[in-house]
Amino acid sequence: MTVIDKIAWIRIENSAILSTRSHGKDVYYLPGGKREPGETDLATLVREIDEELRVAITPESVTPVGTFEAQAHGHAEGITVRMTCYAADYRGVLTASNEIAEVAWLGYADRDRVSPVDQIIFDRLHESGQLA
User: Fold this and answer.
1) Any alpha helices (H) in the chain, and if so which ranges?
2) CATH number, residue 76
3) Under a CB-based contact definition with an 8 Å cutoff, are residues 105 and 94 in contact?
4) How far apart are CA 71 and CA 132, in angstroms?
5) What is the rounded distance in angstroms from the CA atom of residue 119 to the CA atom of residue 70?
6) pTM of the entire structure?
7) In which domain, by residue range, is 62 found?
8) Rounded to whole angstroms, how far apart are CA atoms 31 and 8?
9) What is the distance between the alpha carbons of residues 86 and 88, in angstroms, rounded to a whole number?
10) 13 is a domain residue
11) Is residue 108 part of a domain?
12) Separation of CA 22 from chain center
């Protein structure tokens, strides 16, 4: 089994979660990405969010949310994605950049518009009352 190791940012405002859609993709993903060799979770989170959304994560506000695993969207059966998620505050204005085509605030009703691992996260956040 192949596992894609990713770090993701969970940002919830007004009971909606920040999501992104990459150019050429048909589903939304939580912002974040793969770590580079030797990178910590925090360094990956800060770098990826700056690259994708042009905002600065506030390092002292970063808190772990959980690790989630599911079939990787758009990959062969048996390739899974393991997403370690963090909540954090930020500075700046959210702006789609690099591979990101669109930034959206999604609610639980949008669950079918996100990747399989994000669906698990949506379920967990909805059950805890954080995502409406």
Assistant:
1) 41-53, 116-127
2) 3.90.79.10
3) no
4) 25
5) 9
6) 0.95
7) 2-127
8) 6
9) 6
10) yes
11) yes
12) 12
Render each residue's pLDDT in the chain as its tens digit; 132 residues: 799 999 999 999 999 999 999 999 999 999 999 999 999 999 999 999 999 999 999 999 999 999 999 999 989 999 999 999 999 999 999 999 999 999 999 999 999 999 999 999 999 999 999 999
Could you tell me if 65 and 101 are in contact, meaning their C-beta atoms sit under 8 angstroms apart?
no
Give Cα 98 to chain centroid, integer Å. Answer: 16
Residue carrying the six token digits 């930020």: 90
So what's the pLDDT on residue 126? 97
Cβ contact 68:85 at 8 Å: yes
Q: What is the distance between the alpha carbons of residues 67 and 14, in angstroms, rounded to a whole number?
A: 23
The HSE-up count of residue 60 (CA atoms within 13 Å, CB side) is 0
Q: Report the domain count for the chain.
A: 1
